[in-house]
Fold these 2 entries.
Entry 1:
Amino acid sequence: MNEMNDQEKPHMSDIDKTKIEKIIRDYMENDGNALTILQSVQETFGYLSFEVVEHLSEEIGIPLGKMYGIATFYAQFKFHQRGKYIIQICDGTACHVKGSMLLEEFITNELGIRPAETTTDKLFSLEKVSCFGCCAIAPVVFINKDVYGNLTPAKLRRILNKYRKMSIPMKKNRKVKKSKKVKKSKKVKKVKKVK
Amino acid sequence: MKKNMKEIIVCCSTGCNSLGGQEIHDELVKCIKEYNLDKTVKVKPTGCHGFCQTGPRLLINPEGVLYVYLKKTDVKKIIEQHLIGGKIVEELTYKDPVTKKIVQKRDDINFYKHQVSITTNHCGKINPEDIEDYLAVGGYESLKKVLKMKPEQVIKEIKTSRLRGKGGAGFPTGLKWSFLAQETNTPKYLICNGDEGDPGAFMDRTIMESDPQSVIEGMIIGAYATGATSGFVYVRAEKPLAASRIAKAIEQARKYGYLSDNILDSGLKFDIQVRKGAGAFVCGEETALMSSILGHRGSPRPRPPYPANSGLWGKPTNINNVKTWATIPKIIAMGAENYSKIGTKDSSGTAILCLSGNINNAGLIEIPMGTTIRRVVYDIGGGCPNGKKFKAIQIGGPSGGCIPEQYLDVKMIDTQIDFKSITTLGAIMGSGGLIVLDESTCLVDMARYFIKFTQNESCGKCVPCRIGTRKMLHILDKIVMGQGSYEDLDELESLAYTIKNASLCGLGQTSPNPVISTLKYFRDEYEAHIKGICPALVCKNLITYHISPEKCIGCGLCAKSCSVNAIKGELKKTFQIDTNLCIKCGLCFSSCNKNAIYKKTGGK
């Protein structure tokens, strides 16, 4: 699950500690618990990491093993950075009957990613979800917040192409941001060396 | 609604939104203003109308005309032709897939005709985000009525209604409440179980999205009857709209004083919090759910002690399903006696089911207990589409089983969707997901799918469930690949019964049901797989794709779509698939416009 290189891992120095502190404070006041805190952290940062879980465990006073146990028990928590477009294939019964397996295989062939993986260009991530409850329009695929129903592999190909096209002008804009990101990761490396 | 006023109801729940429901609503609001109709026409966004397949849709009242499968461009047409011109836009109304006749009015559609709505009576009629709308249809009247009664009387009333928990197990609700009421240990807690994890079920989601105030009112009534002071609604993370709507509803209920330290000056104190699940199926089990609310891993524990004695933080707790809570105010409103008259001797009231799979009319339905499966599948559901043959229904999700066709045809003792009769056939009512399977569904693949699901969701605490389901999955994998043997079937059966008898919680105990029921009714299909044949043409290892020379027009679309270049041929001549190269991805199959590509099994 955690087969990623160092660069991809979020470091505590990258993550806004004040945000985490705010989340912890909010939930301590409203008798929250480990689960709700992890949910908020994931909502804010998009994913969890071992370091973040470690930090949380220290702050809340729940043993690390227990904290990690909770984080890995629930399917909702992700331990890797996900792509710009998150493709969620519904694998409910109705979707299965109507061919969701073919859709999954199609994406694996087309994008070279299996469930819980992300393409190298960080554009698409693939995830399988047990049921969205949109059974009447099965098979269903969610791409971020957009829902596509009554799909076939051929229809899905057209949809993926649409997202690919959408990302082209985005990439141009991204250049500016990217350069910033590069700088950041360099900083991280420097910090590491000092350590 | 005032006289001469028209009301347009647009479904804005997850199903319709996914097809563009919200867009239709926004466009409608915009256009109504453009045409200066805002004084005579009111647009109302509501929750689910049940008939999700036909979305996005809108209903014009008071005529009751329904428009289906809408596109954004249709909105203007409806305004100009219907609202201004007074003429129904026939091409946008519903066409019955069986009779091919046009049905203009909602109430005349077969899908609705045979239903009885009690629990879902406000769904699709009120704006779920506006408490005023709920109050306008008599909301919180039941609470006022209850506050004039004694708590014991309320429990007696629920007992009289013979309401059983609608989450699957069917435990009498009144009895459950009385256990909590007897407890002297305080504080007491109420939980609304909205962790609807069964694949193929969306009733709880629909109710929380369409009528959240009913759930809250039901919980307040429960609090009054049992002496609980705080409540939790546990919602699944995969259903974000339901979670946000119930949270919004709770806020509004607080504002109006229905959730406070002194509810309606009766001295009753009650408040509700929302807790989001994090995608674990086992959390639908009550002890696991409580563990999850407390922030731990959602592992179940053996009972006793039951939640009524020791639940959240070791305090007395009562858990009911969303549908059960939502039914409570309606029972109080209509009278327990009246409610108990609906349904059969053993189970009163209605069943809420999600009809999906290979069926013409898919959606959410509410029917009296005791309705036959035939009525549900054919009269309401309209049978299987494209003239395919009905094979079985799958009921109860991963804990349920498949019921074959012969049980629809038995006269007089027709199989009934009832707590008792379903179980005798090896399935369970479960939360009520009903999936129709036609001849194109492979039941061995189906059984494997469910075992894979429970295997994945097994919390790992007890051995029979953790290792047993894995072992079963291995055998089923073998069979699906065409490498099974007859001994495998025996081993599969023996494993199934061991898991059933020895698992710790309900998830494990019921997990072999899909295999047991398919082995019982469809053993021939398992045997066919052992011989290398998949009769339904589903299992990849046992099928090959071919092109029919009679149907192929040589357009080359399939060759273009093939990602491994396994299809070769010349334009305007029959193309051919190289079965050695083919990876059986199905792309060509779904891209051919002439249906010239077909599947074959067993002929290697």
Entry 2:
Amino acid sequence: MDLSFGPEHERFREEVREFLAEHWPAGDGGPPPGAGQEASFRALAIERGYVYRRIPRRYGGSEQPADPLREDILRREFFAAGAPLGIPGVGPAMLVPTLLEHGSEEQREEFVAPTLRGEIRWCQGYSEPGSGSDLASLQTRAEPDGDEWVVNGHKIWTSSAHLADWMFGLFRTEPGEPRHAGISYLLLPMRQPGVEVRPLRQMTGTAEFNEVFFDDARTPLRNIVGRRGQGWKVSRTTLVHERNMIGDPARVQNLFSDLVELARGARLGGRPALEDGGVRRRLVELEGYVRAQQYSGYRQLSATAHGREDRTRLPTLMNKLYTTELVKRLLEFGYDLIDSDESLAAPDENDARARLARSANYPGGWTTQYLYAHGASIAGGSPNIQRNIIGERGLGLPRDLRQTP
Amino acid sequence: MDFGLSEEQELLQETLRDFVARECPPARVRERFEADGAHDPALWSAMAEVGLCGLCLPEDCGGAQLELLDLALAAEVLGEGGVPGPFLGHALAGLALLHAGSEEQRWRWLPRLASGEAIGSVALAEPDSAWEPERWAARLLEGRVGGAKRLVPHAAVADLIVVGLAGGGMALVERGAEGLSVEPFAGVDGTRDLAGLCLDAVPAEALPGGSEAWPRLRDAGLVLLAADSFGSAWKLIRDTIDYLGTRRQFGTPLVQFQSVKHQLADLATELEPARSLYWYAAHAFDHIPAEAERSAALAKAHITDRALHVAREVLELHGGIGFTWECDVHLWYKRAMWNRAFLGGPDHHRERCARLAGW
């Protein structure tokens, strides 16, 4: 067992720090950089091999050899500096890996590089009003008409659809085929008359997800990824990427540090809350979960770096549920510690920082994040879906009793 | 960076799992649990033969000279197996001699402890859950120790007892010493005996490095209890999955009901990542001195707490049979109770963690 990164990787960490200090304009609490500055920073980071490491150069990536330790160093250092490790969102994180695995050469050339530069923004069209957990029952249809697909139906919970240029999603193209076999994975332009986006206002007061209605919306026949009826299989790649995206240990450790600071400043019975025995024990109890996740992360990272992923399959399946449940508990405690003026105040509806905030210690932050925590918990497979996955794939429990039409 | 087990460590666990399956199946655990006295000399000899009695002791004393992580990996497997007997106290007595004993004391005792020929134990607690030297009253004066100790593992069969002294020193007391009386204690876990010690001017010798070595001894004990509890709880989850796979109601194995699956998934998800917590604490014990004390306390509080929770939940998942004496669940449940309370409960160690963080 060895917890050091070794001289080669420590040199790499130094190199990354120097790079960030020199090139990331907001590094020292300066003003947030403009879009142009971000783009030139990103171009430089790609050139250095820091960003989009698993993506070939010819598609706009930096094509680096797989090195989980370097990737971990980059994630941590960029996070600590508040610098973006590429364009955020489902395009680079989910669609690009899918196109690299299943897309045609033309599709890769058309979409990958502009997506990585943020010139094409994407949303994901999976869930429908009648198809949540049982996604394979989806009904939105795409029918060939000349050299186009004609799409009719209704998608829901579509994050950022109001900002997106394109949608990737699942559509029923083979109406005669049984459930999974009738689905194809299509790419569809959002800015056209047949697509209507209606924002869904969330309980946080903000509207970051949407309903999307298709009324004879159109997309060229060539915008199918994989073959007809193979969409289910193609989409599995994407879901794996979504699950990996959600459990971020650095965020949890930050939130825990925020909680300690909150307890230090909060008062309970006229004294600092951190002097209260109950508060202290509750904090350490939560820290047990936080450290277990952190060290389990080291274990999974080591297993990946040394080609032993098979040993850590079970904890990897647990990451999403463990993290979102832990974040909820941390925020519940934070909500208990803030004063009544804050716990009774409406969340800040304009606070776009909330979702990406690196700290909860800002005015209204605990309340806002307390509410937002449900978003991460439900998105990408709600807690009960995760329990099924852990039970069936991790613990070898039998599949649910279900009635399938 | 490699936070994982070496091939040797995986092999160690594999070998011990085979050993436990062969030498200490659940029927033997139950037999000792129900017997008068959990120590089983034949099992102890077999454990000595596979090297379990001297894993961390020096090679020239007949030990394997491994690190605390290796010892903790062994403790995990013994927890899985519910293996009865004096392993924990024996391991701690060996570490006390190793870290605090004089050259002469080490040569006199360590070879016998490593071979299992002599059984060691530690006498720490005093009344009112006093697990810390600041609250102890036992004293060594002119070669004789006086005081009262409680909750001493396997005191009746121990050849050598390391007695914790007021303020942090340690003294060695031998079996049958004049003035030493052992008072039986009806303990909850039938696989690890406990007893009180009445020490009335008992001849004893000081361990010269006792005060400095106490934190090491405590931290090692906390890590071993955490590891044992992890093994116990994981075994309970696996066994419960097996049992609920055979038990049918409404024409279906119980394990196929979603409420049951979800509960099992939750228990496993709360427990599994905590394995890394005891790995980390054991690793810190030998390699990251600045974090050793706090990570041991955190691992002990967290894992023993989670493990008892697992035991309580799986008992009810069994339904009525789970509440019976005949069902094996309570054997591991009570082991989890023992591990959680011995050396102080979670609240005690969480408060220590808070202090150590400067909160």
